[in-house]
Amino acid sequence: MNIQLEIVGFFYGAIMTKKHEPTSETRTKANVLASVGTPQDQIALVIGISKNTLIKHYRKELDTAMTMANAQVAQSLYQQAKNGNTAAAIFWLKCRAGWVDKQSIEHTGKDGGPIDLSLKVVFEDDGEASTE
Fold it and tell me: Where do the domains of the chain lie?
């Protein structure tokens, strides 16, 4: 969905005399901007209203837009995982099914004791030393 966004006006302390009536276009703008995490004061600036007016008339869009966007992305990821995208499947399972990449490096020796770093020198019959 392509939406033309433009700043309609500045409302720093100005008193508005015309009552704002939301349109489908302004609702769509609020929804799109809120879905990507745009701060409310910036959404209000784009629509050309005060932040209080935005909150008054666009409460539903502000409250649900990000959840709906996350759901759409999750649905796309899920479909990719189902269609054989290994990276998407691994990501899904790590995030949703509790899968964990885990590497374990032991820093102890036998039965939890210290690591044996001894060197055994064996003398052969010919007088040469070898290590084991």
Answer: 24-93
Rg (CA), the chain: 32
Q: What pLDDT score does 129 carry?
A: 59
How far is 88 from 91, CA to CA, in rounded Å? 5
CA distance linking residue 132 with residue 38, whole number of Å: 67
Written as one letter, the residue type at 128 is E
Cα distance between residue 132 and residue 114, in whole Å? 19
pLDDT < 70 stretches in the chain: 1-17, 126-132
What is residue 122's DSSP assignment? E
3-class state of residue 127 by DSSP:
coil
**Whole-angstrom Cα distance, residue 26 to residue 3?**
10
